[in-house]
Amino acid sequence: MDLDTKKNLASNWFKTLQNAFCESIIELENSKIEFKSTTWKRNKKKDEGGGEYRILKNGSVFDKVGVNFSKVYGKFPKRFQKNILGAKKNPNFWASGISVVMHMKNPLIPAMHFNTRYICTTQDWFGGGMDVTPSKKDEIEKKEFHKILRNMCNRHNKTYYSKYKKWCDEYFYLPHRKEPRGIGGIFFDYKKDNFYKDFKFVRDVGVTFQFIFEKIIKRKIKKKWTVKDKEIQYIKRGRYTEFNLLYDRGTKFGLQTGGNVDGILMSLPPLAKWK
Description:
two-stranded antiparallel ribbon
C-alpha cells in the first residue's frame, strides 16, 4: 500500500470518528445546545492543511467538551526537527489526528480524554491513547474501565495492555506534584510495525472510547452532587491544566507546528481553581 493511501485511510477515519463522537455527545446532552464549529488553515498564504474543532459549552451534561480534527503538512522548524522521528535530515511532515476532552457538569463523572494520530516524516507511525481523571474516587468504575481496555488490547496483542498502561501511568504524571493526573488508561506512540494491524488497533481504540464514555455518563448522569463535590472538581481541574500546559506532547507539537491555538487549548477546563 502506498503512503498516500495510508494517509487517506487514516485521516478519513479520524474525520468519521469526529462526526460519530459529536452525534453521541449531542444525544447524551439532550438539550438545545449545539456544537460551535470552527475551521482553520495552518497557513493562510499557501496550502498546508488545517482542520476543524468543535466545542460545546454550558450544557446540562457537559461543562465543556471539545472534539478536534486536523490534517496538516509542511516543514518542521529547524529547532524542532531533531526531536521528531525521521525528521532530523528532512523537515517535511504530514500529520492527521483527532483529540477529545470532556469536562463534565456533574463532578461525580470523570473528565475524559482521547486522541489518536498518524504522522509521516521519512517514517510513518500511529500514536494515541485515552485516560480518565475523576475528582472523586470510584474503585468499581476504575476496575471496570481497565477491564474494558485490557479486553480491547487483548483482541490485538496480549502484551499491549500492560505495556500501554505502564506508558500511560508514566506519561500522565505531574512530577512537580508527585502525583498522577488520574486513574490512567493506555498510551502508545511510534506504532509502525504493520500498517494493517496498527490501523485496526487504532480504530478499535476509537470505538472503545465511545463505548466507555457513553457507559460512564449514562450510569452517573442523574447522580446527586454537592457544592463540596464541585469545589473538589475545580481543584482537580487545576491539576489537569498544569499537566496540559507544562508536559503534554500534543499541546507542544500543535503549537510548534503552527496548529490552531484555540483548537489546541480546547483541552483546558472552562473553570479551575487552586488552593
